[in-house]
Amino acid sequence: MPTAGLRLLLALLMAVASLAPAAAVAQVIRGTARNAATNEPLPNVRIMALSLDGASLGETYANEAGRFLLRVRARSRPFTISVTRIGMKPTLSNTLDLAARDTLDVDFSVAEEAVRTDTVRVRAEPGLNEIRLREAERRGWKVFHPREVAAIRDRVLNFEDLLRATGYTGFILSQRRDECVRSTRTNRCLLLVLDGVPLAGSYPNINPRDVYFLALLSPNQSMVQFGDRGPNGAIVIYTRAYGDKLDFDKDPPALR
Question: What is the edge-to-edge ordering of all strands in the sheet holding 234-239?
């Protein structure tokens, strides 16, 4: 028969075993998370065990191969498994009711889901040349639109040929470059203005391929805009240095 000392030792061992924390007893869920569309493993998926009232009973993450091992401390309570990852539809298993030390092998098939973000509105600010074009049209100037200029600028050699190619009869163009461009209404020299800067002299030394649009101002319009420098009217030239935003595929060049 066991001695009194041996009986005491056995009693102590049994007492210690009975006091072991229930948390040491756990169910094990293991398996793989896969993309439902491609069947490829899903890495870094969050796997959670949830009680029926939503409390967490354990969580883990799938490795690079989509494999996971989750220890659940449900203490004989039913629970579900939640599978979540950004860009994937949250997935919830059926209710599980396992014995204290059960191990369950399960694979999860997770569907892709578009990520919703707040609406972003982008407003493009008009370029300087677009502002100039709108202003010229608002003021009622005779505008040779960028579409018209684009249709002819690549087939002329100089600026005076560009003016001739517009077909406009309000210009008097001399064969001599040292003479000014005159108005058919007044037979007087027109002021030439390049990108907002009035020019002294006759024809500007400008490559016609650099021209974005032109505008012709009457004497009254020119006086309002440029004062005594343009008493007879003006030709305003804006170059492509400040933008060329027209989409000619959708809005093809055409002479008016």
Answer: 142-144, 211-217, 234-239, 191-194, 197-198
Which residues share a beta bridge with 107? 32
In whole angstroms, give the CA distance from residue 205 to residue 219: 24
pLDDT means per 10 residues, the chain with 256 residues, are 53 48 69 92 91 87 93 85 88 85 88 70 76 93 94 89 90 80 88 88 78 94 91 92 58 42
| CB of 45 closer than 8 Å to CB of 84 | yes
Q: Where in the chain is the domain with CATH 2.60.40.10?
A: 24-110
Q: What is the DSSP letter of 169?
A: T
Question: What CATH number labels 24-110?
Answer: 2.60.40.10
Architecture, CATH, for domain 128-242: Beta Complex (2.170)
Residue 139: name the closest of 198, 211, 222, 213 by CA: 222
Which residues touch 72 (CB under 8 Å, ≥6 apart)?
26, 27, 28, 29, 49, 57, 58, 79, 98
Q: Where in the chain is the domain with CATH 2.170.130.10?
A: 128-242
CB contact at 8 A, 63 and 71: no
